[in-house]
Amino acid sequence: xxxxxxxxxxxxxxxxxxxxxxxxxxxxxxxxxxxxxxxxxxxxxxxxxxxxxxxxxxxxxxxxxxxxxxxxxxxxxxxxxxxxxxxxxxxxxxxxxxxxxxxxxxxxxxxxxxxxxxxxxxxxxxxxxxxxxxxxxxxxxxxxxxxxxxxxxxxxxxxxxxxxxxxxxxxxxxxxxxxxxxxxxxxxxxxxxxxxxxxxxxxxxxxxxxxxxxxxxxxxxxxxxxxxxxxxxxxxxxxxxxxxxxxxxxxxxxxxxxxxxxxxxxxxxxxxxxxxxxxxxxxxxxxxxxxxxxxxxxxxxxxxxxxxxxxxxxxxxxxxxxxxxxxxxxxxxxxxxxxxxxxxxxxxxxxxxxxxxxxxxxxxxxxxxxxxxxxxxxxxxxxxxxxxxxxxxxxxxxxxxxxxxxxxxxxxxxxxxxxxxxxxxxxxxxxxxxxxxxxxxxxxxxxxxxxxxxxxxxxxxxxxxxxxxxxxx
Length: 473
Prior knowledge:
Blueprint: H1 2-5, H2 9-17, H3 23-41, E1 44-47, H4 49-64, E2 76-80, H5 107-114, E3 118-123, H6 157-164, E4 171-175, H7 181-187, E5 190-193, E6 213-218, H8 221-231, E7 261-264, H9 275-290, E8 294-297, H10 303-328, H11 335-345, H12 349-369, E9 375-379, H13 399-403, H14 407-412, E10 416-424, E11 428-436, H15 441-455, H16 457-463
Organism: Kyrpidia spormannii
Protein name: Glutamyl-tRNA amidotransferase
């Protein structure tokens, strides 16, 4: 069964449709694995054991009647605990919401259920998605499965850990400054943030409404694309939802990268790299040229100004949402989140509006800089994960900027994917980020799928689970 739990969604779906395994059997196996590993990993806040098995039986009954909803029919999926689930606690990783049970699903959860996915659990995270570590004093610190003393990245740390350890076939996270892509890089899985507005934010506890993105984490690009296709599309009830039809999320095969123009922006994105990561990226860039890609050095003016704007917008919007809650219940917030919100409290309307003006200029400058390339390539993480508990609450606001070069892509709203490509420092995964122009998800995923296949990371992920020793799997 362990091998099946690490198989692709396509492989598992075929077995389900051929009735070689039942949906309840598959869901039960995933739940057993979650129970066995969660005491160590803390990847989940809630497991929907009875509900998931009941839903699994209903989906099995449909299969027995020849009803197939699509490729996700019967596939166990988890979701980050900022996404509402009807009848199941949605805590946002916070003491403040630990007893909240919504009466309706987030729109992306509803679409997944409609597609036949079984939502079996709610993933642990950094409180209110406001951090890059997934250290959580209420529900337990999420631990990196490659080194249990280290962080898995955040804020979707529980999602990254669950996917990496075979607890479900994918997870849905959120990303405001890199919260899908950093855990993907540090846990050795795929993290995909589509164009802003492609996936509905309705039913998601917000951090920063104009930079929040929903997206999948999975063990392969193809699996991430399957989840994306099930969730994508306009939501008329979400004012942030894009009306552009956009891409289909197909990961079409092609034989090489011949003629593909890949932009490399050295300023900021390649600065401050850990030596081990820098050396492996240098090798990767050489391989891209061997595969036929053209590497083009580009310059994006105004990066430092844009970074300041990103911080101002995120903190101002975060405080605007939390103001009535934190004013009444300051002690219900963790120290690092309270510090972050206090920063937002002192941002003026003039500063916020000027930051949005800077943002618009930066989007234009980035599109101009990318006019001669199809893809922008950056490191996924620039430093290895640090030890749990090693950063103070006052320093934690800078963690995402220290660990990754992802936040600016949220300011831009462009689609981005992180895929793992190598290991460093005793076996810790390291990721690379690919960024495309708005609504060019098809091209982005096709390039990522080719690189993934050529790098042969996935077989190494399945084969190198040393942390499982003694856990019965």
